[in-house]
Amino acid sequence: MNRFQGKTAIVTGGAGTNIGGAITRRLADEGACVGILDLDADAGRTIESEVIESGGEAMFYRADLTDAMSTEAAIESVVNTYGEVDILVNNVGLALGTTLEAIDEETLYRDFEINFKSAFLATKISLPFLQESEGNVIFISSVNALLGGFSEVTYSSAKAGLHSLCRGLTADYGPDGVRFNVIAAGSVIGDSEVWRERERNDPGLIERIEELYPLQRHGLPEDIADATAFLASEEAAWISGVVLPVDGGISATGGLSGRDWWNGL
Predict the structure, then answer these.
(1) 218 in a domain, yes or no?
(2) Does the keyword field hold Oxidoreductase (predicted)?
């Protein structure tokens, strides 16, 4: 399919080895010119080369997405290169992972900068271009924003803020033809050093995670990329203000353990 032929997409955190990279590849595979915004220059240039070598169009722009000037400069560079912005995917995210009593102000502010402020800035700066193109914005959130999560209170709170932001923007800018949606992702495990390290430190971790999900597997980066491509496409032209769980069904169980555990009560 070439659903995004002639369209320009921006993917923040688009150089990641997990969700971000999968979204970048998927949109490029379907014809979009992709502006990859990321702080990691080596990873950014690598995925830019991969997309181009596979016949797609992409350009990497190094940016600190928590900084307004850096974000604005990168988005303006995308527009100067491709002429427009049709799709914005706010994918930047990081769970710093600590409990309330251990959180200091620096950790609090950093969690909100990474998980909320980055999306707020990119959306605000891109808005005039999205109004012109009648484009759409997708926020990558987490089921933690729906269910909560152990030792991730600031991360869950920041991601939940994206849900309210999405709904408010839908009300304000829907009349301009701009759509806003959220994907609440479950546990997505890709080929990343982070997950390899976690499994080395805790053998069996992934199997235990999978047991929590009704569909009995963890998510793949491509699962989130598929949902992103759908929401960005004309097939979703009358969908806006939605929080879509892409989570193997875990939000339907309230995060409780699997069927065998439940039946044993």
Answers:
(1) yes
(2) yes
Examine residue 2 and state whether it is found in any structural domain, yes or no: no
pLDDT of the chain along its 265 residues, tens only?
Answer: 799 999 999 999 999 888 999 999 999 999 999 999 999 999 999 999 999 999 999 999 999 999 999 999 999 999 999 999 999 999 999 887 678 888 889 888 999 999 999 999 999 999 999 999 999 999 999 999 998 777 788 999 999 999 999 999 999 999 999 999 999 999 898 776 677 777 788 888 888 888 888 898 888 999 999 999 999 999 999 999 999 999 999 999 877 655 554 444 3
Question: How many domains would you assign to the chain?
Answer: 1
10, two tokens: 């921006």
Residue 140 lies in a domain: yes
Catalytic residue among 61, 82, 155, 213: 155
- In single-letter form, the type of residue at position 260 comes to D
| Closest residue by Cα to residue 111 from 69, 161, 44 | 161
Tallying the residues shown for the chain, one arrives at: 265
Residues facing 152 on adjacent strands: 98
Domain limits for position 97: 8-263
Catalytic residue flag (residue 155):
yes
Identify whether 1 is part of a domain.
Answer: no
User: What pTM, to 2 d.p., does this model score?
Assistant: 0.93
